[in-house]
Amino acid sequence: MAKSEMQNQVRRLRFEHGQMTQQQLADKVGVTRQTIIAIESGKYAPSLPLAFRISRTFGVPIEQIFQCNDEEV
User: Fold this and answer.
1) Cα angle: 4, vertex 6, 37; to 5 degrees
2) What's the pTM?
3) Which one, of 23, 5, 4, 14, lies nearest residue 60 by Cα?
4) Among 57, 51, 61, 62, which residue's Cα sits nearest to residue 27?
5) Is the pLDDT of residue 4 over 60?
6) By CB neighbour count within 10 A (0-12 exposed, 13-18 middle, 19+ buried), where does 34 fall?
7) Domains (range + CATH), the chain
8) Dihedral of CA 57/60/65/68: which sign?
9) H helices within the chain, ranges in order?
10) What is the per-residue pLDDT across 12-60, written as a single tens digit (0 to 9) for each?
């Protein structure tokens, strides 16, 4: 059985975009700050529409933000 682990660059991108706060990003993409915290810590994988909104906010392709690492368990 394969186990998927989602990694992301959201935190790094926030800091590269003028020290954007978690709340500012949350407001831009229409979620709570707690959702951004969960995404950054890897506890929550965003829905595809949310991932695209984050991608558009930073102006980078979605695959540069989110990577899925599949492992055999």
Assistant:
1) 140
2) 0.85
3) 14
4) 57
5) no
6) exposed
7) 2-72 (1.10.260.40)
8) positive
9) 10-16, 22-29, 33-40, 48-58
10) 999 999 999 999 999 999 999 999 999 999 999 999 999 999 999 999 9
